[in-house]
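Q: What does the assembly look like in three dimensions?
Context provided by user:
Components: two
Sequences:
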Amino acid sequence: MGIFDFLTQRNKNTANVAKNRLRILIEQERGMRDAPDYLPLLQRELLEVIRKYINVDVDAVKVDLHKDGEHNLLDISVALPEKES
Amino acid sequence: MAEIIVVTSGKGGVGKTTTSASLACGLAKAGKKTAVIDFDVGLRNLDLIMGCERRVVYDFVNVVHGEANLKQALIKDKRFENLYVLAASQTRDKDALTKEGVEKVLNDIAADGFDFIVCDSPAGIEKGAFLAMYFADRAVVVVNPEVSSVRDSDRILGLLASKTRKAENGERVKEHLLLTRYSPERVEKGDMLSIDDVQEILGLNVIGVIPESPEVLQSSNSGNPVILDETSQAGMAYVDAVARILGEDKPLRFTTVEKKGFFSKMFRS
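A: Here is the predicted structure of the complete assembly.
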């Protein structure tokens, strides 16, 4: 701890931190707002199935619903772990 | 035609009931015949903030169930002769209110020549909150400059745009933010989200900014809505908010740091 640490402490703008966190979170939640209720469950079950075969992280499966013209597009992406060698 | 205003927020404790009581008093004082209804079934509190808790005989649920008529249940305010309170019931039955029942009560109040019906929503996004917003023409979303309140407000705005009668008919509920417990000093220090921050995140403008002030608690203590304390900043800010609801153009007050002299700094309680 330096003696001038209190200066940097003082300048910590937590309001900005709050603003940035909220921006990201709310954008994400708005995207899910019109999505069907089954999406989180679908995501969870997909994850379970994939994990039977591949050891992936909990956030490896992303399920998004997009509007593509007149169609709804269910976009499922799975991030596979890097090859162990 | 009565205009139905829901005061809602998602999060609890941000000042919905304080706001409902003050807006109702302000509208009545402006000459509008106003009813304010407590939708928080099971946790009645509006009566206390309005100072009529000892005069509740019949409540909202009694009227919905036909156990009392509207005239019996509407409590006439002692300060304004054109202001009435409909208290929530203390029942624990969450299904005591129905959409049809609420609609009938609102229609009956409107038919009685009321100009405004203020619906004080319970916290949360369950049935009571849903019913409070369903028939609204206008929504005042009470928000604190704080992360969880802002997030919940966005959730509520989503519901207002989809789960209301207006939304189902392809119209929009007129939405406003009311920022409460605002502290310009803390905003200046970078400790608190600013008015612009909240407006930008939620994509909506404020209809009022109520500064954090000790008079709000004092007013609750005595059962006199803070808007009636016209010497307090919070009271004056509510007066402005009511004027804006009625279509007046008022600049925001008490949203910047007051430059204080040394002595007032020392002696301000």
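Follow-up: Helices of chain A lie at 5-10, 14-33, 39-53.
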